[in-house]
Amino acid sequence: MCQLLxxxxxxxxxxxxxxxxxxLRGGLTDEHVDGWGIAFFEGAGVRHLVDYQAAVHSPLxxxxxxxxxxxxxxxxxxxxATQGKIALENCHPFVRECxxxxxxxxxxxxxxxxIPELNGNYLPIGNTxxxxxxxxxxxxxxxxxxxxxxxxxxxxxxxQQLCGEIARFGTFNIMLxxxxxxFVHCSTELHYLVRQxxxxxxxxxxxxxxxxxxxxxxxxxxxxxxxTQPLTTNETWHAMHAGEFMVFVDGAALNHTS
Length: 258
Known about the structure:
This protein is α+β, with helices and mostly antiparallel strands and 258 residues long.
């Protein structure tokens, strides 16, 4: 199965430390070698990088590690293909527009016989179940709410219902962001933590690298990190349970629903 990494913050923050450990799982400390990708929200724009090479061999992955890009919402993915060939168009995360807003989506798992009827407003470019699910979600949101974007509470309820519907077809661990919030649905395995004052030193699980966040933050900073498996050995990660849906805004978990 693939792996996910997400970050949601109250102030633009770089993801270099977390991504350094995460990328090693793309072919060195784990077996996810069928591509990778990452998307950073910057205002209304999105920096979007994908590569069909394994993350440990990708020059683009090295770029992310050495050139800090600050963002309030980041989604990254390393792929072990279950559906769809190894190709750029099948690398997560995927990006689409809805209500004049960029949306970023990534999925791990496998959806069996998930062939929704798509009306043409959102169509897959590649041939993965994941991209089909993303197109279906955006299509259904537009059908429900029309041309006016819903409130966050309305959006949360709709997304939770849609995730539950799609999850009946298999494993549906996802991250979805519109740049204002990070929406997360767990089918099998996802973990999260919130870093805030007083900050401590963190040690990566996949490499002998540590950082004292007190040296690089302010007392007002708050950062939520969500990953398939914990990225550090000396922090308290919270396991999500099957069917749980969470929303992160400004580095805080707003609600837990299941």
